[in-house]
């Protein structure tokens, strides 16, 4: 029997304090294979200020985006690595190092 877990994805639009429902992510299991599905909220797609959650994997368009690549649903929304993320990682390592000494 297929199982499903659905979570709604909320985001704060750039340059705004407004929180909107961008869509939902659902993880299902079909014949023993985990399948991740993301669907944009139709009202979100109609907004002029809507931004894609990932311009390559999740462009702004209606429909279902399916993947079997990612086991962790949070990885679907992970920001690409960049200088800021590297700096944050270095800062966390320094804090942990101080805490263990």
Question: Please, could you describe this protein's structure?
Answer:
The chain contains 2 helices and 4 strands, in the order βββαβα. The model is unreliable at 80-84 (pLDDT under 50). A 4-stranded antiparallel β-sheet has the order 1-2-3-4. It is α+β, with helices and mostly antiparallel strands and 101 residues long. The longest helix has 18 residues, at 83-100. The radius of gyration is 17 Å and the shape is globular. It starts with a strand and ends with a helix. The protein has helices at 42-45, 83-100, and strands at 3-12, 19-30, 33-40, 64-67. It has one domain (3-100).
**Beta-strand fraction estimate:** 25-35%
Q: Measure the end-to-end span.
A: 51 Å
Mean pLDDT across all amino acids: 77
Rg, Å, rounded? 17 Å
Percent helix? 10-25%
Helix count, per DSSP? 2
Entry summary:
The chain contains two helices and four strands.
Key attributes of the depicted protein:
101 residues, alpha+beta, four-stranded antiparallel β-sheet, 2 helices
What is the fold's blueprint, element by element?
Elements: E1 3-12, E2 19-30, E3 33-40, H1 42-45, E4 64-67, H2 83-100
